[in-house]
Structures are given as C-alpha cells and as structure tokens.
Amino acid sequence: MNQSPRPDVQRLIEVTSERFIPGEPGYEPGSFDHRLHLARYRLAGEVVSGRVLDVACGTGYGSDELLRRGCDHVVGVDADEGAVTYARSHYPAPTFLTADAHCLPFGDGAFTGVVSFETIEHLERPDMFLRELDRVTTPGAVLTLSTPNYRGGEYSTPFHVREFRRQELETLLRDVFGDAPIEWLGQLDTEGASGSRSMSRAVIRLVKLLDPFNLRHRLLGRRFRTSVSHYALGISTPPDEMFPWRQTALYTVAIVRKPGAVAPRGRDG
Fold first, then answer.
1. What is the 3-state secondary structure (H, E, C) of 109-149?
2. In terms of DSSP bridges, do strands 73-78 and 95-98 run parallel, antiparallel, or are they unpaired?
3. Is the distance from CB of 26 to CB of 223 less than 8 angstroms?
4. In the chain, what are the domains?
5. How far is CA 189 from CA 120, 163, 244, 260, in A?
6. Alpha helices (runs of H) in the chain, residue ranges in sequence order
7. Which of 108, 121, 152, 263 could form a Cys-Cys staple with 160, CB 3.0–4.6 A?
C-alpha cells in the first residue's frame, strides 16, 4: 500500500503523478520514475551551459542537477508556489521563482540555455511560451524540451491541455526559431508492445469506469501500478536511455540550437 507522504511534501504539494517529488513512494532514488526524470536533466547537462533557465522546475531536483553538471547559474521557475517553496528549502544552490511560463519575468537575452521538460502540453498558448523562450535567450543559446509523443486517442492525463505529434511540435518550433538546427530524440520505446495502443487505452478506460472512486490509487502501491501500465504500453527500453526519435517513442525530446555567436558546449563536449 502507499505510505503517507512526508508532512512537508503533503502540506506544500499535491501528489498527482505529474510532478516528481523526491522521497515519495515510487520516487525513490533508482526507481523507474527517478531514472526517467533524471535522464532528461543529464542529457540537458551535456548541451546547456552558462546561465540556464529551468521552466516548470517543479521541486527543484533538476535545477540542482544542472548545477552539478557544470552550469554557472540556474534559475528555476514554476507556477506552483508550493513546489517553489519546497525547491528553495531543499536545494539552496539554484535560484527559484514563482512565474507564469507565458510571461517570464526576465529581460531579453538573460540566459544562454533553457530546459523545459513536460511543460508545453500543459499550456493554453504554447506559441506564446516558445516566443518567451526565444526572447529571454541569447543568440547561440541551446533549448532542451520534452513532451509526450501523441499518437491518437485520449490524452495520457487530464492535466494536459494538448499533446503533440512530433510534426506538430516541429511546426511550432519552426514558427519561432526558423531554420535553427533541431536534434530529435526519444525516451521509452513501445515498439515491443504485444497489443495495440488503442487496446491498452480501452483497458485503462474500463478500469476507470469500474473504479469511480479511484480506489486503485489508494489501495495499490505506485510501483505495482507503474509496472502494470508499462506492461500494457509495451515499454521495451530502460528509462534512462535516449535514442534517435522514432514513432514508437513515448516521449519526444527536442534540442534546439539558436544561431549566433554564443555557443554552449555540444554533446561531444
């Protein structure tokens, strides 16, 4: 069964599975979710440098990881004041602010890099968000973003405003960043799925229908629920593996390199 959240987490942050909360059941170091989230920040740590903005930083563990990987200064912003309060109290090295991703409280060209994971699908105006990222970054800045790879059917969670196919995300990025080089990567491959995605979603809908009081979340441990969902989706790669993007990826990762004189380090060092 699920353990009760730590008092400081329970007071500040709603546990929704949309936010990684260190120490919560299922989010222990080395767990699937821990490796999944940390892999994105480790990737970002290979390509961003200097003054870095972490948009939708959540509880701050990723902003701290970027500093550990050599960034000079990291500013994390999140719309959830409770998450920002948690981040400030647990990770003192980065700077944390409460802010709206549509209207960032920074001057033009304030950052040489941006990291924003699992953010754009939550926003009413993703175009405005991307234009803000362009505004607050210097020429030559590197932006690393991730989002679920939409392949039809219901969205993966009710918290998402819109999920994007890779081509749709590229169109949005091109509208803002023009011909800037974009490297496309994937995370969690579902190529080995034994059944169709539509069948998996049908099973999930049936479970929701038969469980109107959400007892599965109250009575079954997160680790067990995660294992069942991974089996249903046919995930065939470890959570910390990044691979060249393909249609069967569960998550899309885009690395955008703005043209210009400032050139943060590349993946080769």
1. CCEEEEEEECCHHHCCCHHHHHHHHHHCEEEEEEEEEEEEE
2. parallel
3. yes
4. 7-189+241-257 (3.40.50.150)
5. 21, 17, 10, 34
6. 7-12, 32-47, 61-68, 81-90, 126-135, 166-177, 197-210, 215-219, 222-233
7. 121
| Rounded distance between C-alpha atoms, residue 212 and residue 75, angstroms | 40
Name the pLDDT band for 201 (thresholds 50, 70, 90).
low
Q: Which residues contact 24 (CB under 8 A, 6 or more apart)?
A: 5, 6, 9, 15
Q: Where are the alpha helices (DSSP H) in 51-90?
A: 61-68, 81-90
Scan for tokens 């260190």, then name that residue: 22
Look at the pTM and tell me if it is higher than 0.85: no
Instruction: Report yes or no: 113 and 234 within 8 Å, Cβ to Cβ.
Output: no
User: How many CB atoms lie under 10 A from the CB of residue 48?
Assistant: 29
State both tokens at 119: 């953010």
Averaged pLDDT for residues 22-42:
82
Q: What is residue 18's predicted lDDT score, i.e. its pLDDT?
A: 58
Could you give the CA distance from residue 213 to residue 248 in angstroms, rounded to a whole number? 32
Highest mean pLDDT among 17-21, 81-85, 172-176: 172-176
Whether residue 171 has pLDDT greater than 70: yes
Q: How far apart are CA 143 and CA 134, in angstroms?
A: 9
Report pLDDT digits (tens) over 9-27. Answer: 434 445 445 567 776 766 7
Question: In 3-state terms, what secondary structure has residue 52?
Answer: strand
**Identity of the residue numbered 94:** P
